[in-house]
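Colleagues,

For the teaching module next term, I've prepared a clean inverse folding example: a structure given as tokens, and then the sequence designed for it. I'd like students to try predicting residues themselves before seeing the answer, so please don't circulate the second half yet.
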């Protein structure tokens, strides 16, 4: 079997070098086209096993109550939070956030109802009778005390020391995407339970394809929204300390960090490879050839992932660095063996040298 494979390799690959290079270039060109479809994902679908019990419960809750995306902005002013100037800045920040296209609403300490400070009985509560901090007739000291003592507001919209407040930035929900999300989850739960019919399997494939397109589009919009919100926050940092939080931001930042790490570590590994090859071989061709091999391997792998539409999670995103290192080690083995054969067999032809190198090193590399 080994002899058969060796002869086939000599006859097809080494015997037809031009055709071999053409085929390799065609394969490289084909998969290079799909590099654009390479995606990183930080959603629950990729980070959690499909049959995870907690994920199943989350899908059931989402099915029943829907899904609401929101961000949280914390604001700690330089002056007392309940001073007129700080409340004015808080109102300006809220109004700027509300102007954003895909922001549905913004909830702050200026907007929440004050029951005790309004001096209204429970039986007499109406929309107009309940006051907020923005009402000029409200006693700010009483309002602050109510918020600090309230089990609803304490530690949620206001810190225990009364100096830091949170703004809940509610983002608009795509109704069609939400319905598609629910339909897909129902079929996914059926697949886990083993009760999925053939028709439902086809539906699931259609829903999943449409879901991924819409999900990618929404992620781009969310990224732009987060950038705009951060820009607004930066313009208010002269009045105090502000931070942005929330699940959409964490997901967006995680993907951004991973992309940055891929570039940084990829460049670092590239420099390491060049330095290693230069120190070991000290010849240009033994630096260039392994680099081309590493480039070919990584580009093909990224293209395959894009072609198959397999998303890379934040946990497995370091595969490029690993591939470069593994491919480099194989190339060093092959180069060292080839140079040894050149020294030991000075009269051998190029064909025999390459054939012997490949035959001797194929099993160690595997």
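(Answer key — instructors only)
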């Amino acid at each position: 079997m080994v002899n058969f494979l060796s002869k086939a390799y000599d006859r097809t690959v080494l015997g037809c070098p031009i055709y071999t290079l053409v085929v390799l270039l065609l394969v490289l060109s084909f998969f290079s086209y799909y590099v654009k479809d390479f995606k990183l994902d930080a959603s629950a679908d990729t980070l959690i096993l499909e049959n995870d019990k907690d994920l199943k419960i989350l899908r059931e809750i989402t099915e029943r109550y829907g899904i609401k995306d929101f961000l949280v902005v914390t604001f700690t002013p330089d002056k007392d939070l309940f001073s007129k100037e700080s409340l004015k800045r808080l109102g300006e920040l809220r109004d700027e956030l509300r102007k954003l296209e895909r922001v549905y609403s913004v909830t702050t300490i200026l907007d929440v109802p004050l029951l005790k400070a309004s001096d209204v009985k429970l039986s007499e509560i109406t929309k107009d009778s309940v006051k907020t901090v923005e009402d000029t007739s409200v006693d700010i000291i009483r309002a602050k005390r109510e918020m600090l003592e309230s089990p609803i507001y304490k530690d949620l919209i206001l810190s225990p020391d009364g100096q830091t407040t949170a703004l809940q930035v509610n983002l608009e929900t795509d109704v069609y995407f939400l319905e598609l999300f629910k339909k897909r989850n129902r079929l996914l739960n059926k697949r886990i339970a083993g009760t999925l019919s053939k028709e439902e399997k086809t539906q699931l494939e259609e829903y999943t394809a449409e879901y991924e397109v819409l999900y990618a589009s929404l992620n781009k919009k969310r990224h732009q929204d987060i950038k705009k919100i951060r820009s607004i926050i930066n313009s208010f940092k002269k009045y105090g300390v502000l931070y942005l939080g929330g699940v959409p931001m964490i997901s967006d930042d995680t993907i951004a960090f991973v992309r940055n790490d891929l570039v940084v570590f990829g460049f670092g590994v590239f420099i390491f490879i060049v330095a290693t090859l230069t120190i070991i071989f000290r010849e240009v061709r033994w630096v260039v050839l392994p680099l081309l091999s590493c480039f070919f391997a990584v580009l093909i792998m990224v293209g395959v992932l894009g072609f198959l539409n397999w998303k890379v999670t934040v946990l497995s995103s370091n595969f490029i660095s690993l591939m470069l290192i593994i491919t480099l080690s194989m190339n060093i083995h092959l180069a060292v063996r080839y140079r040894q054969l050149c020294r030991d067999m000075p009269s051998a032809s190029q064909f025999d040298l390459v054939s012997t190198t490949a035959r001797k090193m194929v099993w160690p590399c595997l």
